[in-house]
Amino acid sequence: MLTFNLLLLVCLAYVAFLFAVAFLAEKRAERGQGSWLRSPMVYTLSLSIYCTAWTFYGAVGNAARNGLEFVTIYLGPTLVMIGWWALLRKLVRIGRAQRITSIADLISSRYGKSTALGVIVTVMAVVGTTPYIALQLQSVTLSFAVFAGNDATGGGWDPSDLNFSALWVAAGLAVFTLLFGTRSIDANERHHGVVMAIALEAIVKLVALLAVGIFVVWGVAGGPGAMLDLIDTAPVGAWELRPGRWVGLMFLSAAAFLTLPRMFQVMVVENSDERHLATASWAFPLYLMLISLFVLPIAVTGLAHLPGDANPDLFVLTVPLAFDQDILAMLSFLGGFSSATSMVIVAAIALSTMVSNHIVLPVWLNSQQGGAALSGDVRGVLLLSRRVSICVILALGYIYFRLSGAGAALAAIGLVSFTGVAQVLPAMLGGLFWRGATRVGAIAGLVVGFSIWGWTLFLPSFGEGSVIPATVLAEGPFGVGWLRPHALFGIDGIDRVVHAVLWSMVLNTGVFVFTSFLTFPQPLERLQGAAFVQVFRRSAGPRGWADNRAETEDLLVMAQRIIGAAEAQALFSRAAEAQGKGGYLPDATPAFLETLERQLAGSVGAATAHAMLGQITGGSSLSVEELMRVADETAQIMEYSSRLEAQSAELGRTAGQLREANEKLTALSIQKDAFLSQISHELRTPMTSIRAFSEILRDSGALEEGERTKYSSIIHGEAQRLTRLLDDLLDLSVLENGQVTLNLAEVRLADILDRAEAAALSGDASLVVRRDAAIADAVLTTDPDRLAQVFINLISNAQKYCDGSAPELTIAIRFADASMTLDFIDNGTGIPRESQAMIFEKFSRLSDHRAAGGAGLGLAICREVMARLGGRIAYLPGQGGAAFRVTIPLGLAQVA
Amino acid sequence: MTDTPPPPDPQDAPFLARQSYVQRRLGDAARLLPLVGVLLFLLPLLWLMNAEAPRTARGLIYVFAIWTGLIVVAAWLAPRLMHRPPKAIDTSDSPTHEP
Amino acid sequence: MAGRVLLIEDEPNIIEAIRFILSRDGWHVDVHSIGETAVAAVHERAPDVLVLDVMLPGRSGYDILADLRADKVTEKLPVLMLTARGQKADRDMAMRAGADRFMTKPFANEDVLAAVRDLASA
After folding, report:
1. Domain boundaries, given as residue ranges, for chain C
2. Is residue A478 in a domain?
3. In terms of Cα–Cα distance, which of B25, B60, B30 is closest to A81?
4. Which of A46, A563, B85, C109 is most buried when burial is the number of CB atoms within 10 A of its CB?
């Protein structure tokens, strides 16, 4: 006999196993070995969070009550999936092109990045999903109860303990979701661990249901034929086909499949490859079919073999137990547990993203008055708000569970939820296929649909007389009969769910379309509308930004705060390269702003990203003339212009490169003159001392011994200074001509840095040098002397030029595939933007500090050395002080 | 094909055109498939016209047979739709609503 | 006749050499090394002859000279300019700025001495 404690133990072991799987998947993904994590099959399995505990327990219960009707809930999604070419493909393409983070973000982004729409959809999603989460907790608790009631030895388990167990389940889910659901804030950095775990749970629930099904068909009934006979003689043998529910539920499940926040999360946001959709288009319907294949057999077996008062919602558990199949019951329990947990985890992630991006962040940005995008810790606020949202959402689910009690049948709660979230469908489809849909129309439709849902289905679901008084249900509010929740407009006798679906969807769609006709979209709405509806036709998105004077360095600082330093720097340097420039600061062209905004939208949602960029660029988004150009329909007909565009883009890039090359040449020519004059100065100064003192020594016979020694040593010192200068010049010339022999050796990076520090600082402690701990482990194959030469230059530059009150140099390390980057960042005022491009040229001392010693050849030599070593050195703007990034290959192949 | 003046790649042009034609018809089929599915799943409603009430066992077999059929067709279409000619321009965004 | 010379120069070794050469001839030599405060130093020390380097930290010798020439008190002060940049353009610039003499480094010791003597007696 299964004891309750054993069950608990197995359950805990299973949870631990899930944690391990998620953890390993994250680890592998981090190390870039995650390609198999992203197979089409994993994608398909992750879609199975559609099948929650409602499916696992509720479908059998539903089948026992209503026969074949349960199947409509799976036919709807099947039809959507096999029709992927028309709808889902477009949805996923838009999701990727616009870096959509959630269903609320999709609607908000489509209708002009509207904050109001984001809030409305988020609130609807939270209200609609809370009962659903409660449903999952309830099903887990009920399944515990089955074993507790069945357990003779366990004793002492009363319902309050079961509530307690629901609390523990909720807390455990919160921990899992916090650990694996909030590791990254960018929606496009996907949650590998979570997806892997739910894919595993998908297998567990399928196997469990199939096992129970096979057992009842072959083990109990004795084969398919006998089973069909059993079905025929069962209470549900005559098919009471109710046309309204058959059609209505199929439509409702198809709509909910598209609009459920958790489905949108796995289907669109977590999609890493459009081709996965092609596989899922048949594989997921197959999964659904297999899941539902044995539902009816299990139901009729339960009806035939269990006592009449047995809860049909628990047949999946109680049927194996009735036949003393403990292992099967255990498997079935884990299947139900999997269904519940995977749904709750993904729903919590999806909702927390929506709440933090569409409610918390806009409020926070407004409260910070202006400068938030630059100074505030956006990342921190975002992560904290996601974590708090997850806890709040799970807490809401638990509270609803406690308040509603375990009364209503599982399927009923599920349908209430489905109808609520389906209200987003008109705004969503209208947004995808109809350019005339407007923001005001979408808001009106959503509010109307949601209100009708609340009045006719959600509020009555709390039970008669609890929220809506019984008299109102029977006679309508204030005696107005045609407003009765279950008989709007006096039409009585329709099934309640069908009634709610019918009226809410009809009025929702009607108001949405009609209001869209009456209102005129704003510029940004029209652009977004075109970008969504014609996502396949347009390769490049429309411009939402006008030319403006935004300071790119400010943009970089902001981007680093949101998407992280490495990501932001890579993005900026890519953009600079595409414009034909070097370095990290591209021009703030409309095209670049568009790219940047979309990248940020992947983290904080479209509306917030747009508002943040607006703060920095002074809101110069879109002039009327620009809009005229975009809105001009004829411009789109001229398809061949795209080729011209490509050419002119190429020309523009070349022109940009030429302009930059020309500017550099002009600057270099001026530098060459300056170079001659400089070199003359650098050579003549020591020679002056040498000549003057040698004449003194020659002409003045009566010098004291001390004076003679002193003057000789001055001559000697100056001669050495000349030699050093010539050495540097020769070194540079050799490096530039590429005639260097490298002495490669495998060395510890820390050793080279130690050497460089000792040589550069030579006991002077005025500059504090801090290093990353990770430097200690770094080993590389390079020419240690040459590399040390570069480090010495950088450290002594920091010592000479860093003007902070307590000079400090931070050396940070980061590893990439085959190279490492070292950032040398000091806390001074840094190098002014206009000088950044010239510092690596010869004799380009920024000030005339002769005190600084060198002849201005140091960084030029560094640049050449790094090129020989197969790496790079660049100035890194936007770090506060002066910052240099040195990129070194980990292993340098011996060059002949 | 021999009497046409030689374009840069005489073998490729008609072949490509044909392939993209086939691709478009496959896309049409993919859009049609869910509509066919809806019709077939609604067909049991006609059984209500019969004098005798429909039996669940029969319905079960019917629904799952159609279901399997749709899956097989979708599985046949999916890989063919993904193998598109490299430069075909997609014009497939005519509004095809889900029912 | 020996008087007071103010040397404005920043290379310590060159200062040492010029001080030696002029002191041996009986001149009193004051030294100043910072460009920004050079004009004030001239007013304070009131030398008979000014020896002025071109490349100074903070301010170029040309600018200092222009300031001196614009001031009533110092407009006649004899000035010998020294530069390590030996191009003709440099000489022209020095003359335009109002230098009385111009010498390129490295120089012969007796030339410097002769120039200072000349300027003092002129």
Report:
1. 4-121
2. no
3. B30
4. A46
* Residue A423 φ then ψ, to 5°: -65, -20
For chain A, say whether C34 makes contact (Cβ under 8 Å): no
Based on the domain organization, do A832 and A861 belong to the same domain? yes
A597 plus A668 within the same structural domain: no
Q: Are residues A140 and A177 in the same domain?
A: yes
A6: phi then psi, degrees, rounded to nearest 5: -60, -45
Count of other CB atoms within 10 angstroms of residue A373: 25
Domain interval for residue A421: 4-359+376-438
Q: Which CATH superfamily is domain C4-121 in?
A: Response regulator (3.40.50.2300)
Q: What is the pLDDT of residues A811-849, one digit of tens each?
A: 888 887 778 888 888 888 877 777 777 777 776 655 544
Identify all chain A residues contacting B44, using CB atoms and an 8 Å cutoff. Answer: 239, 241, 246
Determine contact: B79 vs chain A, CB below 8 A: yes
Three-state DSSP class for residue A825: strand
Identify whether residues A90 and A140 lie together within a single domain: yes
Where do we find the tokens 């009923």? A412
Same domain, yes or no: A109 and A251: yes
What was the ipTM of the complex prediction? 0.92
Nearest one of A587, A527, A558, A116 to A359, comparing CA atoms: A116
- Report the CATH number at residue A717: 1.10.287.130
Distance between CA A399 and CA A393 in Å, rounded? Answer: 10
Residue A210 lies in a domain: yes
Smallest CA-to-CA distance from A591 within A649, A636, A647, A631 is with: A649
Residues A765, A771, A776: CA angle, nearest 5 degrees: 120
Chain A touched by B52 (CB under 8 Å): no
Phi, psi of A819 (to 5 degrees): -145, 170
How many CB pairs below 8 A link A and B?
A: 142
**Which DSSP helix (H) or strand (E) runs through A770?**
strand A768-771
CB A565 within 8 A of CB A645: no
Would residue A476 count as lying in a domain?
Answer: no
With beta carbons under 8 A apart, name residues in chain A contacting B81: 85, 278
Residue where a domain stops, chosen among A737, A766, A785: A737
Q: What distance in Å separates the CA atoms of residue A41 and residue A645, rounded to the nearest whole number?
A: 40
Task: Return the H-helix or E-strand segment holding A884.
Answer: strand A883-889
Say whether both A713 and A750 belong to one domain.
no
**CATH number, position A838:** 3.30.565.10
Could you give the count of Cα atoms lying within 13 Å of A697 in the half-sphere of its Cβ?
17
Q: Is residue A594 part of a domain?
A: yes
Q: pTM, whole model, 2 decimals?
A: 0.64
pLDDT tens digits along A30-58: 666 656 667 888 888 888 888 888 778 88
CB A230 within 8 A of CB A301: yes
Task: For chain A, list residues with pLDDT below 70.
Answer: 1-4, 30-37, 148-163, 183-190, 368-377, 404-412, 462-494, 537-551, 561-562, 564, 582, 588, 590, 604-608, 611-643, 671, 763, 843-856, 892-896
Residue A792 in 3-state DSSP? helix
What CA–CA distance (Å, rounded) separates A419 from A249?
Answer: 10
Q: How confident is the model at residue C55 (pLDDT cuts 50, 70, 90)?
A: confident
What CA–CA distance (Å, rounded) separates A382 from A42? 28
- Chains in contact with A, counting 3 or more C-beta pairs less than 8 Å apart as contact: B, C
One domain, residues A294 and A393: yes
**How close does chain A come to C55, measured CA to CA in Å?**
9
C-beta separation of B53 from A95 below 8 A? no
A186 CA to chain B: closest CA distance, Å? 28
* Tokens representing residue A209 in the block: 């249901």
Q: How far apart are CA A273 and CA A39, in angstroms?
A: 9
One domain for residues A754 and A771: yes
Instruction: Give yes or no for a contact between C101 and C94, defined as CB atoms under 8 angstroms apart.
Output: no
Q: In this structure, are residues A775 and A747 in contact, taking their beta carbons and an 8 Å threshold?
A: no
Closest CA to A26 of A187, A173, A190: A190
